[in-house]
Amino acid sequence: MRRPGPRLLAGVLLAVLLVGCARESSEAAVVAEPLPKAPDGGAPEESTGPLESAEEKAGGASARPDTTVRELPEEKVATPSPEVKVAAPPPEEEVAAPSPPPQIVPIELIPVAFGFDDPVHVTNAGDGTGRLFVVEKPGRVQIVQFGERLDEPFLDITDLVTVFGQEQGLLSIVFHPEFTTNGAFYVNYTDGSGATTIARYRAGPGENRADAGSGLVLLTIDQPFQNHNGGGMAFGPDGHLYVGMGDGGSANDPYGAGQDLDSLLGKMLRFDPSNPDVLAIPASNPFVGDPAARDEIWAYGLRNPWRFTFDRETGDLFIADVGQNAVEEVHFVARADLDGPALNFGWNVLEASACFRELDCDRAGMELPVAEYGRDGGCSITGGFVYRGSEQPALWGVYIYGDWCTGRFWGLAPDGAGGWRNEIVGTADIGLSSFGEEESGEMFATGLFSGGLYELVVAG
Ligand SMILES: [Ca+2]
Ligand SMILES: [Ca+2]
């Protein structure tokens, strides 16, 4: 929550030389060995969503989170800091020195504010005010500024929001890139019929109370079941608005929505909100001109993307997709691939890298996750952010995410050898519902059970 300081790390990183790269590459075990076949999902209305109740979570031995930290094989944990030595002063003309891969260090949570009512999301407005906006599932958005929660909500649309199901409610807020001039922001909630609803609201510059009467519903997508509503929204480096949609719920994707290109469920959608009052379809969307597939679709094969993020430094995309019975996963999309052909993230042919229900399946044309974990790690992934702040230089460049059920956190980062390193970095029993960034890039998390907002820092 402090003001940005000098960014030390880039200089430090340039001044070190890595030794022993060959040894490091052998530590890059991320996407694990082939996983066991998913249990036959015969149970109806299974729910592994991120907002389910403790009772639901505990039901069923196969879904019970393991609360003990698993001892990983030595080469997967306890990554020794790579030996470094300080290089001679860099030459005057900087010749593209390869930047060393980020290290992954333990983190801890520092409480910032409490008393939130089922907080499920936190973000900033990018307007220079330093405000954090905490989304409460029943339908309110609260402001935290200078470490203090304000008395009055920024927005209260509880009368429009349905929360019959554990995964229903007001699920996220995102501010238009030109919020400072057009005052526009978007909310994603389940309406009176349970349908996913995206509405545009407005707020005056710096005002702590949005215009509650300004709501304009831009998109409604029917939901066949109460769970798996997705609910995430983020602006990409292309200026487009990406919207994550779950497969519509129940269990096992009964309607095959993930692979159905005529459905908006189980997808990542992409819109052009140049005019903030319209969710226009970019001409660059992969299925524009294809009458057999919906033009809104940017990518498909998702089960319930519970949070995704664009790395503010690189524009790369990380998507955390909640698994069915066996595996939680993280997908990575490089910035350069955002305008390529539609990506297929696999569901419900694949659950993470494993065939789902079939002994064998055709993975051709499907994206495999860059990290995944089974029930020994948790039961419902909560996607995070790539740390790009200045207060915690040791976290620079690390994608930090966690698990709703176990409260375990991981750090994921390139290993410098074309692969990924994925390591446990902490645990917190808060009901980890979401991560968020403030304007300066410092990283936060919300706890559904604790009603708290926390800042992530290097453990110390
Ligand atoms: Ca089309
Ligand atoms: Ca997948």
Q: pLDDT below 50 for ≥5 consecutive residues: which ranges?
A: 3-50, 52-87
**DSSP strand tally:** 30
CATH fold field value: Neuraminidase
User: Helical element count?
Assistant: 4
Provide the list of bound ligands, each named once: calcium ion
Description:
It is a single chain. The chain has a single domain (9-29, 72-458), classed as Neuraminidase (6 Propeller), CATH 2.120.10.30. The chain is mainly β and 460 residues long. It is 4% helix and 33% strand. It has 4 helices and 30 strands. It has helices at residues 9-14, 21-25, 54-58, 179-182, and strands spanning 16-18, 84-86, 107-113, 119-124, 132-136, 140-145, 148-149, 155-156, 170-175, 184-190, 196-202, 211-221, 233-235, 241-244, 267-271, 297-300, 305-310, 317-321, 328-333, 343-344, 350-351, 354-355, 371-373, 381-386, 399-403, 408-414, 420-427, 432-437, 443-447, 452-458. Strands 4, 5, 6, 7 and 8 form a 5-stranded antiparallel sheet that branches. Strand 4 and strand 5 form a beta hairpin. The longest helix is centred in the N-terminal third of the chain and has 6 residues, at 9-14.
Q: Layout of SSEs?
A:
Elements: H1 9-14, E1 16-18, H2 21-25, H3 54-58, E2 84-86, E3 107-113, E4 119-124, E5 132-136, E6 140-145, E7 148-149, E8 155-156, E9 170-175, H4 179-182, E10 184-190, E11 196-202, E12 211-221, E13 233-235, E14 241-244, E15 267-271, E16 297-300, E17 305-310, E18 317-321, E19 328-333, E20 343-344, E21 350-351, E22 354-355, E23 371-373, E24 381-386, E25 399-403, E26 408-414, E27 420-427, E28 432-437, E29 443-447, E30 452-458
Parallel strand pairs: 16-20
Antiparallel strand pairs: 1-2, 3-30, 4-5, 5-6, 6-7, 6-8, 9-10, 10-11, 11-12, 13-14, 14-15, 15-16, 17-18, 18-19, 19-23, 21-22, 24-25, 25-26, 26-27, 28-29, 29-30
The structure holds calcium ion (2 copies).
